[in-house]
Amino acid sequence: xxxxxxxxxxxxxxxxxxxxxxxxxxxxxxxxxxxxxxxxxxxxxxxxxxxxxxxxxxxxxxxxxxxxxxxxxxxxxxxxxxxxxxxxxxxxxxxxxxxxxxxxxxxxxxxxxxxxxxxxxxxxxxxxxxxxxxxxxxxxxxxxxxxxxxxxxxxxxxxxxxxxxxx
Length: 167
Description:
Largest sheet: 5 strands, antiparallel
Protein name: Protein kinase domain-containing protein
InterPro entries: Kinase-like_dom_sf
Radius of gyration: 16 Å
CATH architecture: 2-Layer Sandwich
Shape: globular
Distance between the termini: 23 Å
Strand content: 25-35%
Number of strands: 11
């Protein structure tokens, strides 16, 4: 697993504190890296280490809201459940979900949508319609349900909203 040095040291600290064993890397993106760990009960969890604190706190707060509302599914798609978080290490530990799922809330906003211009929103909708093709109407319903919880998801793509029929 090839992680940035800043994340590698935080991963070591986090796994020691939480008594986790690193199993494998799960993915890397613009916001950070996700690893699969095993806990003392030998259950697998995902731990996301953020590169930037602003995205970390947005995502942490979304998971706290989902936890407070006891949300585990949105429009039939699984949502990871918050297990633990560490503000100093910018780490969010969550359950692992398989398709159909909705995950990755680092680009989400609470209680208000991002302050984009009408032109940016138009281009965003056109791009998402193209990205999701025939699933775009369902994705719009998913986004509307999240908005009913006060969660506005700006970073939506087929990698973080996945249906059974796409790979």
